[in-house]
Design a protein that fits this description.
By secondary structure, the chain is α+β, with helices and mostly antiparallel strands. The chain contains three helices and five strands, in the order ββααβββα. It has two domains: 31 residues, no CATH class; 33 residues, no CATH class. Helix content is 29%, strand content 29%. The protein has a three-stranded antiparallel sheet with strand order 3-4-5, with helices on one face. A two-stranded antiparallel sheet has the order 1-2. The relative contact order is 0.13.
Length: 76
């Protein structure tokens, strides 16, 4: 397997195989760097019923909200 490394200002962000870099980026920088076409990455607030995109609520079930919160999101 061939691997790759993604650096930001000389700081290692992720080392992994190409498929994992694409499918499971370690952070938003890696996602934006690897994504093709370029990704639009936005921080949104989570609440009990979904993700709030500035007045547009994207419904999520409770399991998805919990998973997003555990993955670095914050609920309000």
């Amino acid at each position: 397997m061939t691997g790759g490394a993604v650096l930001l200002d000389g700081i290692l962000q992720q080392v992994d195989g190409p498929r994992n870099l694409y499918d499971r980026p370690a952070n938003a920088f890696v996602a934006g760097f690897i994504g093709s076409p370029a990704m639009n990455i936005r921080t949104v607030r989570l609440n009990d019923t979904g993700a709030d995109f500035g007045g547009l609520l994207v419904p999520l079930d409770r399991e998805q909200v919990v998973a997003a919160a555990l993955d670095g999101g914050a609920t309000r």
